[in-house]
């Protein structure tokens, strides 16, 4: 998995150098001699040209360094704070520009939500009616209970829901809403994951009634226990069997059963900050096992011990490369 763009990012060395130059320029450290060195560096190789292009894009977005990193530019070059900021800055350059819009959108959704989790965090909630919700990594929800309904708005991420009977005088439906549709619980346990254009639903107990946001397919569709599907705002996907380990993440595990390494890495990166670059030569390698999501570095080491995979870390662990051993 290269990035959210088709074009791969510049190599990690060029990104690290670009981050260092950007930090030094922002801190006002350069002498005339060093500034001349920087002018030569940024045009010396194609990879450096591409890396500095991303640095310029970042500057144009913020008018300088991101506020969270700007103060670190004033620290000593050898300080731990500055080294950590340098790694974070290189990681930001790696995902620009394709991830910029979704990054800012997710950031705004997260901080205005009723409940949220950071990357790598999970959170369990007991609602006023006794229902239980578990939030997976990088998830944001709003909760609205009124006289007519019990509504969970999933803004981003993934949740596991276990509903409780409504004891109010009016029997209020329990509904989970995403941009693609509304899912009404029919006495049930289920998981919902919202992606950019589709919602993934897996029913573990009972049933869930789904109504699409643009309901052009007629009456709502009922998904029963043991079934899963995905849907856009106007179209249902295929109905398949729910894997027994679909909610293993609630126990802190990522399960793989002859899973393509590329798909496994895509899942694992949800739980870590930074960037994982996978050599296409091993993308189709099939792996199996149970892996901890609370310690992604341990998971990567487990892969290297079991399969012909070489794990290389750069930029203080922000950039990981998986290649054939």
UniProtKB/TrEMBL annotation:
Alphabetized Pfam families for the sequence: DUF4880 (PF16220), FecR (PF04773)
Transmembrane segments: none
Record-annotated FecR N-terminal domain positions: 16-56
Protein's name according to its UniProt entry: FecR family protein
Protein source organism: Pseudomonas moorei
InterPro entries per record: FecR (IPR006860), FecR_N (IPR032623), Ferrdict_sens_TM (IPR012373)
Any one GO molecular-function label of the UniProt entry: sigma factor antagonist activity
Residues annotated as domain FecR protein: 114-209
Domain of life per record: Bacteria
């Amino acid at each position: 998995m290269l990035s959210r763009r088709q074009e791969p990012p510049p190599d990690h060395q060029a990104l690290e150098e670009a981050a260092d130059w950007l930090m030094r320029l922002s801190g006002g450290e350069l002498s005339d001699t060093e500034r001349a060195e920087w002018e030569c560096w940024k045009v010396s190789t194609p990879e450096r040209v591409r890396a500095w292009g991303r640095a310029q894009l970042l500057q144009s977005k913020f008018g300088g360094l991101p506020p969270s990193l700007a103060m670190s530019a004033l620290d000593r070059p050898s300080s731990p704070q500055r080294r950590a900021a340098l790694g974070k800055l290189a990681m930001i350059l790696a995902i620009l520009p394709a991830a910029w819009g979704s990054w800012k959108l997710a950031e705004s959704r997260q901080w205005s939500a009723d409940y949220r989790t950071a990357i790598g965090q999970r959170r369990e909630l007991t609602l006023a009616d006794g229902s239980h919700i578990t939030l997976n990594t990088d998830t944001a929800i709003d909760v609205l209970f009124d006289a007519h309904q019990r509504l969970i708005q999933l803004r981003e991420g993934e949740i596991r829901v276990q509903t409780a009977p409504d004891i109010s005088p009016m029997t209020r439906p329990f509904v989970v809403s995403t941009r693609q549709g509304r899912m009404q619980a029919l006495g049930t346990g289920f998981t919902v994951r919202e992606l950019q254009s589709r919602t993934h639903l897996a029913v573990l107990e009972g049933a869930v009634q789904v109504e699409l946001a643009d309901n052009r397919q007629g009456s709502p569709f009922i998904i029963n226990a043991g079934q899963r599907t995905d849907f856009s705002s106007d179209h249902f996907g295929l109905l398949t069997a729910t894997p027994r380990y679909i909610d293993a993440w609630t126990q802190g595990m990522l399960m793989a059963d002859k899973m393509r390494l590329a798909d496994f890495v895509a899942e694992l990166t949800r739980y870590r900050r930074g960037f994982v670059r996978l050599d296409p030569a091993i993308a189709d390698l099939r792996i199996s096992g149970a892996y901890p999501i609370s310690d992604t570095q341990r998971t990567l080491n487990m892969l290297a011990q079991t399969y012909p995979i070489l794990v290389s870390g750069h930029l203080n662990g922000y950039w990981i490369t998986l290649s054939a051993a």
